[in-house]
Amino acid sequence: MSTATLPGGYALRVGAEQMDVPAVHAFLTRTYWSEGIPLEVVERAVRHSLCMGVVTADGEQVAFARAITDQATFAYLADVYVLPEHRGRGLSRAMLSALFAQPGLQDLRRFMLATRDAHALYAGYGFTPLARPERMMERHDPQVYQRLAANRAD
Fold first, then answer.
1. Number of domains in the chain
2. Which residues of the chain have pLDDT under 70?
Protein backbone atom coordinates (compact mmCIF):
# COMPACT_ATOMS: atom_id res chain seq x y z
CA MET A 1 0.00 0.00 0.00
CA SER A 2 0.99 3.63 -0.21
CA THR A 3 2.27 5.91 2.49
CA ALA A 4 -0.46 8.39 1.56
CA THR A 5 -1.51 10.43 4.55
CA LEU A 6 -5.12 11.35 5.07
CA PRO A 7 -6.32 14.07 7.40
CA GLY A 8 -7.88 12.92 10.66
CA GLY A 9 -11.36 11.51 10.37
CA TYR A 10 -10.80 9.94 6.93
CA ALA A 11 -9.74 6.46 5.84
CA LEU A 12 -8.84 4.81 2.53
CA ARG A 13 -10.81 1.87 1.20
CA VAL A 14 -9.32 -0.38 -1.49
CA GLY A 15 -11.19 -2.78 -3.75
CA ALA A 16 -14.56 -2.93 -5.45
CA GLU A 17 -16.15 -4.77 -2.53
CA GLN A 18 -15.25 -1.87 -0.21
CA MET A 19 -17.01 0.80 -2.31
CA ASP A 20 -20.44 2.25 -1.53
CA VAL A 21 -21.71 1.82 -5.08
CA PRO A 22 -25.02 3.67 -4.53
CA ALA A 23 -23.05 6.65 -3.20
CA VAL A 24 -20.67 6.53 -6.17
CA HIS A 25 -23.66 6.32 -8.52
CA ALA A 26 -25.39 9.25 -6.80
CA PHE A 27 -22.39 11.45 -7.56
CA LEU A 28 -21.52 10.15 -11.04
CA THR A 29 -25.04 10.49 -12.40
CA ARG A 30 -24.73 14.26 -11.97
CA THR A 31 -21.27 14.69 -13.56
CA TYR A 32 -20.47 16.09 -16.98
CA TRP A 33 -18.80 12.82 -17.99
CA SER A 34 -21.51 10.33 -16.99
CA GLU A 35 -24.73 12.23 -16.53
CA GLY A 36 -27.63 9.86 -16.11
CA ILE A 37 -25.48 6.71 -15.82
CA PRO A 38 -27.64 3.80 -14.64
CA LEU A 39 -26.85 2.17 -11.29
CA GLU A 40 -26.34 -1.23 -12.92
CA VAL A 41 -23.66 0.25 -15.21
CA VAL A 42 -21.82 1.74 -12.21
CA GLU A 43 -22.08 -1.61 -10.40
CA ARG A 44 -20.52 -3.41 -13.37
CA ALA A 45 -17.82 -0.75 -13.84
CA VAL A 46 -16.80 -0.87 -10.18
CA ARG A 47 -16.79 -4.68 -10.13
CA HIS A 48 -14.36 -4.78 -13.09
CA SER A 49 -11.98 -2.03 -11.94
CA LEU A 50 -9.26 -1.44 -9.39
CA CYS A 51 -11.04 0.96 -7.02
CA MET A 52 -9.96 3.35 -4.30
CA GLY A 53 -12.23 5.40 -2.05
CA VAL A 54 -12.11 7.69 0.94
CA VAL A 55 -14.63 7.42 3.77
CA THR A 56 -15.34 9.53 6.82
CA ALA A 57 -15.12 8.15 10.37
CA ASP A 58 -18.81 7.24 10.17
CA GLY A 59 -18.30 5.32 6.89
CA GLU A 60 -19.68 7.86 4.40
CA GLN A 61 -17.91 7.53 1.06
CA VAL A 62 -16.73 11.01 0.06
CA ALA A 63 -14.18 10.28 -2.68
CA PHE A 64 -13.65 7.70 -5.39
CA ALA A 65 -11.31 6.76 -8.24
CA ARG A 66 -10.94 3.67 -10.37
CA ALA A 67 -8.38 2.28 -12.77
CA ILE A 68 -9.52 0.16 -15.67
CA THR A 69 -6.54 -2.07 -16.34
CA ASP A 70 -5.07 -5.35 -17.53
CA GLN A 71 -2.50 -4.89 -14.71
CA ALA A 72 0.32 -5.59 -17.16
CA THR A 73 0.54 -2.99 -19.93
CA PHE A 74 -2.30 -0.46 -19.78
CA ALA A 75 -4.58 1.45 -17.42
CA TYR A 76 -7.16 4.19 -17.74
CA LEU A 77 -7.98 6.41 -14.77
CA ALA A 78 -11.70 7.15 -14.50
CA ASP A 79 -14.44 8.58 -12.31
CA VAL A 80 -12.20 10.52 -9.93
CA TYR A 81 -14.08 12.76 -7.53
CA VAL A 82 -14.20 14.22 -4.04
CA LEU A 83 -17.55 15.49 -2.77
CA PRO A 84 -17.55 19.31 -2.82
CA GLU A 85 -17.88 19.68 0.95
CA HIS A 86 -14.74 17.56 1.48
CA ARG A 87 -12.48 19.25 -1.08
CA GLY A 88 -9.39 21.24 -0.18
CA ARG A 89 -8.18 18.71 2.41
CA GLY A 90 -5.71 16.74 0.28
CA LEU A 91 -8.08 13.79 -0.17
CA SER A 92 -7.67 13.51 -3.95
CA ARG A 93 -3.87 13.52 -3.71
CA ALA A 94 -3.84 10.94 -0.92
CA MET A 95 -6.33 8.73 -2.76
CA LEU A 96 -4.51 8.97 -6.09
CA SER A 97 -1.12 8.35 -4.47
CA ALA A 98 -2.49 5.19 -2.89
CA LEU A 99 -4.12 4.09 -6.14
CA PHE A 100 -0.97 4.66 -8.22
CA ALA A 101 1.04 2.67 -5.63
CA GLN A 102 -1.06 -0.47 -6.15
CA PRO A 103 1.04 -3.42 -7.38
CA GLY A 104 -1.15 -3.99 -10.46
CA LEU A 105 -0.47 -0.45 -11.66
CA GLN A 106 3.33 -0.61 -11.65
CA ASP A 107 5.51 -0.68 -14.77
CA LEU A 108 2.68 -0.12 -17.24
CA ARG A 109 3.53 0.96 -20.78
CA ARG A 110 0.61 3.42 -20.92
CA PHE A 111 -1.66 5.02 -18.32
CA MET A 112 -4.29 7.38 -19.70
CA LEU A 113 -7.06 9.66 -18.49
CA ALA A 114 -9.35 12.40 -19.72
CA THR A 115 -10.05 15.56 -17.76
CA ARG A 116 -11.74 18.86 -18.40
CA ASP A 117 -10.24 20.83 -15.53
CA ALA A 118 -7.73 18.91 -13.37
CA HIS A 119 -4.63 18.99 -15.59
CA ALA A 120 -2.42 20.43 -12.84
CA LEU A 121 -3.40 17.68 -10.38
CA TYR A 122 -2.57 14.91 -12.85
CA ALA A 123 0.62 16.57 -14.08
CA GLY A 124 1.91 16.08 -10.54
CA TYR A 125 1.69 12.33 -11.19
CA GLY A 126 3.56 12.48 -14.48
CA PHE A 127 0.62 12.77 -16.88
CA THR A 128 1.25 14.91 -19.96
CA PRO A 129 -0.72 15.83 -23.07
CA LEU A 130 -0.67 13.10 -25.71
CA ALA A 131 2.73 12.92 -27.40
CA ARG A 132 1.15 11.82 -30.67
CA PRO A 133 -2.54 12.75 -30.61
CA GLU A 134 -2.80 11.99 -34.32
CA ARG A 135 -2.31 8.31 -33.45
CA MET A 136 -5.15 8.19 -30.94
CA MET A 137 -8.76 7.49 -31.88
CA GLU A 138 -11.94 7.00 -29.94
CA ARG A 139 -15.50 5.82 -30.17
CA HIS A 140 -17.49 8.30 -28.11
CA ASP A 141 -21.22 8.03 -27.42
CA PRO A 142 -22.16 10.82 -24.98
CA GLN A 143 -25.89 10.04 -25.19
CA VAL A 144 -25.67 6.33 -24.35
CA TYR A 145 -27.20 6.64 -20.85
CA GLN A 146 -30.06 8.80 -22.05
CA ARG A 147 -30.84 6.21 -24.77
CA LEU A 148 -30.72 3.39 -22.23
CA ALA A 149 -33.16 5.27 -19.99
CA ALA A 150 -35.50 6.00 -22.92
CA ASN A 151 -35.45 2.36 -23.98
CA ARG A 152 -36.32 1.22 -20.44
CA ALA A 153 -39.20 3.70 -20.30
CA ASP A 154 -40.78 2.26 -23.46
1. 1
2. 1-4
